[in-house]
Amino acid sequence: MIADGSEDEEKWLAAGAAAFKQNAFYMQRAIDSNNLKDALKYSAQMLSELRTSKLSPHKYYDLYMRAFDELRKLEIFFMEETRRGCSVIELYELVQHAGNILPRLYLLCTAGSVYIKTKEAPAKEILKDLVEMCRGIQHPLRGLFLRSYLAQISRDKLPDIGSEYEGDADTVIDAVEFVLLNFTEMNKLWVRMQHQGPAREKERREKERGELRDLVGKNLHVLSQLEGVDLDMYRDTVLPRVLEQIVNCRDEIAQYYLIDCIIQVFPDEYHLQTLDVLLGACPQLQASVDIMTVLSRLMERLSNYAALNAEVLPYFLQVEAFSKLNNAIGKVIEAQEDMPILSAVTLYSSLLKFTLHVHPDRLDYADQVLGSCVKQLSGKGKIDDTRATKELVSLLSAPLEKYNDVVTALKLTNYPLVVEYLDTETKRIMATVIVRSIMKNNTLITTAEKVEALFELIKGIINDLDEPQGLEVDEDDFQEEQNSVALLIHMLYNDDPEEMFKIVNVLKKHFLTGGPKRLKFTIPPLVVSTLKLIRRLPVEGDNPFGKEASVTATKIFQFLNQIIEALPNVPSPDLAFRLYLQCAEAADKCDEEPIAYEFFTQAYILYEEEISDSKAQVTALQLIIGTLQRMQVFGVENRDTLTHKATGYAAKLLKKPDQCRAVYACSHLFWLEDRETIQDGERVLLCLKRALKIANSAQQVANTARGSTGSVTLFIEILNKYLYFYEKGVPQITVESVESLIKLIKNEESMPSDPSAESFFATTLEFMEFQKQKEGAIGERYQEIKV
Fold first, then answer.
1. Which keywords are on file for this protein (predicted)?
2. Is residue 335 pLDDT above 90, yes or no?
3. Cystine design at 103: which of 47, 505, 508, 750 (Cβ 3.0–4.6 Å)?
4. What is the dihedral of CA 547, 552, 557, 560, to 10 degrees?
5. pLDDT grade, residue 749 (50/70/90)?
6. b/e per residue 338-348 (b: at least 16 CB within 10 A)
7. Cα–Cα distance, 40 to 554 (Å, whole number)
C-alpha cells in the first residue's frame, strides 16, 4: 500500500467516493427499473473502487461502509427477483461473470446470502463455498474487508441450534467450522501485513494493524454467541483450534490481541473449566508478548466471577485453579528469561489478588504466592524500577486491604521477605500504609512476638540506621510519620501485665536503636503506655505472689528511668523533665517513696543543668510546685529537702515578677488542707512576705529604669493568696495583714496605673463582698475584714 501523504490520500478517497457514488446512482436506477443486468454491471463497477491500494485502513473503511450500505440494497433487490421467478441458482452463477475478482466475490457473498435465505440448498454448503472462494483475494487489506463482509452477512444465517437454518443435514459444527476457517484466513492476512513494505515503516504498519484488529476479533465474538457452542464443544474444538492458530502465527501483535479476545468474549465458566488448556499456550507465545497483562485480565475476570457467584467457589477448588495459575506463571517466567521484573511482580500481584478474592480463608495460598515472588526477586537486590516498586507496594497492600487486619498479614511468613526488596524510601511508604491500616481498623496487636514481627515490617519509619547518606526527608513528612508511630503504640496492648511488659520491652529495643531524632516522638507515648501498665498491677495485698511476681512496680519504674535517660541526649531535656515528674506521680500512687524521690532528683538535675531559658524555667518551676503539692508518699525529711530546693529555685529566677509569682506559689507547699502534717502557717506567711518584698523591689526597679512606679498587679495577686489562706483558716494570716495589704494597694492605685490592674483589684473587692454575704464560718470571717 502506497501513501505519499494525507493530502494525496484525501484526494484519492474523494475521487474513489465520487466514482462510487456515480455507479451507485446508476445501480439504484437499474434496481428501480428491475433491470438485473444493469444492476450487476454498475454494482461491479462500483465495487471496483475497493480494489485500490492507495488508502490507509481508516480511509479504506470509509469506502467499504459506502459499499456495505449499497450491497444491502442490492441484496433486497436479489431477494425480490427470486420472488418474481428468477432462479436463485442462476443468480448465484450470474454474479460470478463479473470481470474482476474482488467485485465478483462481494457480489457472490451477497447472492449467497440470498441463496441461504431461500433454503434451496443447505446453508453449510453455500457457506463452505463462499469461505473457500474468498481465498482468491490475498491482498491483506482487501482480503480482510472482504472476509469481514462475509462474516457480517452470514452471522444470522449460521446453522446454529434454534436457528431456522439448522435443518437435519446441518449441525452447529458446520457453523463452527465456517467461522473458524474464516478466522484462520483473516488472521493470516492480518499477520501478513506486518511483513510487507520496508523496515522503516514498521511503526506505521503496526498502527494500521491496530486499526484492523477488530475485524479479526469479530469472528471469536460470533463463536461465543453461538447457542450450540457449549462447554464440551468449546473445550474439544473451538479453544484448541483457536489456540493452535494463535501459537502458530508467531506474531506478537496477533498473539496478544487474540488471547485477550478469548478471555473477554467467552464465558467465565468456560475459562474456569479449560484453564489448563488456555494456560498451556501461554509459555508458547512469543517472548515479546505482554503476557503479564493478558494473565492479569484473566485472573481479574475469574475473581469477579467468583465474587458475583458464591456458588461457583467449590468449582475453583475442584479444578485447582490456584495451582494451575501459579504453575502457569512460573512456566511463563521461566520461558521468558528476559522478562522485566515489573512483569513478574505484576503477575504475582494479580495472582495474590485473585487468591484473596477466591480463597480468602487459604492463607497458605497467599503465602505461597509471596514465596514465589521472593524466589523470583532473589539475587536482584533492591528494586530500582519505579513502576515495579509501585506494583510491589500494591502486592503488599492487598492482604491489608482484604483482611483489614495486620495480624492476619503477620501470619504470612514470606511477607517480610518481600518487604526487604523495597528501597529505603518505599519501605517508609509501605510502613505508613501498614500503620494507617492498623489505626483505621482499630487493630490491637496483643503479643510481643507479633509486635516484633510488625516492627520488622515498619522499620522504615522507626529506624534511620540504614538511610543512605544525603537522603533528605521532608520535615513535615517526618513528623507526620513519627506521630503515626506514637499513635500506633497505643494499639499494642495486652490485659496480662507480663505480656504487656514484654511488649514495651520490644518497643524500647527498637526505639532506642532507631536514631536520636525519633526519640522525642516515640518515648513519651511509650512512657504513657508503661504508666498505664503500672496502674493495672495488682496491689501487693491482692497479689497472691506478692513481690514474687515477675512484673513488679519497681521493675517497671527502672524500665521507665532507662528510657527517659535517653531524652536529654536528643536534646529534649524539657520533655525528659516532664516525664520524670509524671513518673514521680505514678510512684506516689504505688507508695514507692525512694523511686519517687529519685525521679524528682532527676527532674531537679535537668532543671539545674539543662533548662536555661528564663521562660522555660518559669514553666518548669510551676510543674515542680504543682507536682510536689500533690505528692503524698514523702516523709518529712525528703519533702523538706525537695520543698527547700523548689523555693530556692523560685528565688533565683531572672525576672523579679517571675520570682514573686514563683515564691507565692511555693506557699501552697506548706499548707495542704487534707493533711494535718503539712500545715505550716509560719512558712506560708514567710513565703507571702517574701513575695511582697520581691514585688516592692520590682516596683523600685521599674521606677529606676522607666521613671514610673510600675503596676500593682503583683500586690493584687499576693492579696488573692492572702485571701485564699485566710479563708482556709491559716492562723498566721490575720485580718490585720489582709487589711494592711488592701490599704497598700489603694495607696499605690492613687498613682497612675494600668486599667487591667484596676479591673483586677475591683474584681477582688467584689469577691470579698460576695463572700461576706455567705452564711456560716466563711461569711463571718470575711465580715471581720474592713475594706
1. Cytoplasm, Endosome, Golgi apparatus, Membrane, Protein transport, Transport
2. no
3. 47
4. 150
5. low
6. ebebbbbbbbb
7. 109
Q: How far apart are CA 270 and CA 231, in angstroms?
A: 6
Question: How confident is the model over 382-439, as pLDDT tens digits?
Answer: 777 888 899 999 999 999 888 888 888 888 999 999 998 888 888 888 999 999 999 9
Report the distance separating Cα 297 and Cα 303, nearest Å: 10
CB-based burial, 516-529: b 16+ in 10 Å, e otherwise: eebbbbbbbbbbeb
**Rounded to whole angstroms, what are the CA distances from 415 to 364, 422, 430?**
12, 12, 12
Which residues in 266-305 are b (16+ Cβ under 10 Å) and which e?
Answer: bebebbbbbbeebbbbbbebbeebebbbbbbebbebbbeb
Instruction: Write the burial class of residue 195 (CB in 10 Å: 0-12 exposed, 13-18 middle, 19+ buried).
Output: exposed
Burial (0-12, 13-18, 19+ Cβ within 10 Å), 33: exposed
**Rounded Cα–Cα distance for residues 543 and 550 (Å):** 12
Count helices and strands (H / E) in the chain. Answer: 39, 0
- In this predicted structure, what is the pLDDT of residue 77? 95
Burial bucket for residue 262 (CB in 10 Å: 0-12, 13-18, 19+): buried
Q: Which residue has the cell 428491475?
A: 34
pLDDT digits (tens, 9 = 90+) for 560-603: 999 998 877 767 788 999 999 999 999 999 999 999 999 999 99
For residue 547, pLDDT over 50 is answered with no
| C-alpha to C-alpha distance for 388 and 394, rounded to whole angstroms | 10
Q: Is the pLDDT of residue 777 over 80?
A: yes
Could you tell me which of 592, 674, 578 has the C-alpha nearest to residue 633?
A: 592
Q: What is the pLDDT of residues 64-96, one digit of tens each?
A: 999 999 999 999 999 999 998 889 999 999 999
| CB contact at 8 A, 611 and 617 | yes
Portion of the chain with pLDDT greater than 90, in percent: 61
Which residue, 731, 719, 733, 725, is CA-closest to 763? 719
**Which run of H or E residues covers position 126?**
helix 123-133
| Chain centroid to CA 540 | 49
Q: Left if phi > 0, otherwise alpha if psi is -120 to 50, otherwise beta: which for 655?
A: beta
User: Which carries the bigger pLDDT value, residue 469 or residue 773?
Assistant: 773
- The string of DSSP codes covering 576-630 is HHHHHHHHHHHHHHTT-HHHHHHHHHHHHHHHHHT---HHHHHHHHHHHHHHHHH
What is the C-alpha to C-alpha distance for residues 602 and 622, in angstroms, rounded to an integer?
Answer: 16
Long-range contacts of 157-162 (CB under 8 A, 24+ apart): 157/113, 157/116, 157/117, 157/123, 157/127, 158/123, 158/127, 158/222, 158/226, 159/122, 159/123, 159/124, 160/226, 160/227, 160/228, 161/226, 161/227, 161/228, 162/227
Coil, strand or helix at 540: coil
Which secondary-structure segment (H or E) carries 412?
none
Task: Give the tens place of pLDDT for each residue, 368-378.
Answer: 999 999 998 88
- Cβ-Cβ contacts under 8 Å for 689 (sequence gap 6 or more): none
The pLDDT value given to residue 699: 83
Does pLDDT of 711 surpass 60?
A: yes
CA dihedral in degrees (682, 684, 686, 690; nearest 10)?
Answer: -170
pLDDT over 60 (residue 467): no
Residue 38 CA: distances (Å) to CA of 26, 140, 490: 8, 30, 91
User: Kind and range of the H or E element at 498?
Assistant: helix 497-512
507/522 Cα distance (integer angstroms): 9
Q: Cell 475442584 appears where?
A: 318
Cell 487486619 identifies what position?
405
Q: How far is CA 234 from the centre of its chain?
A: 40
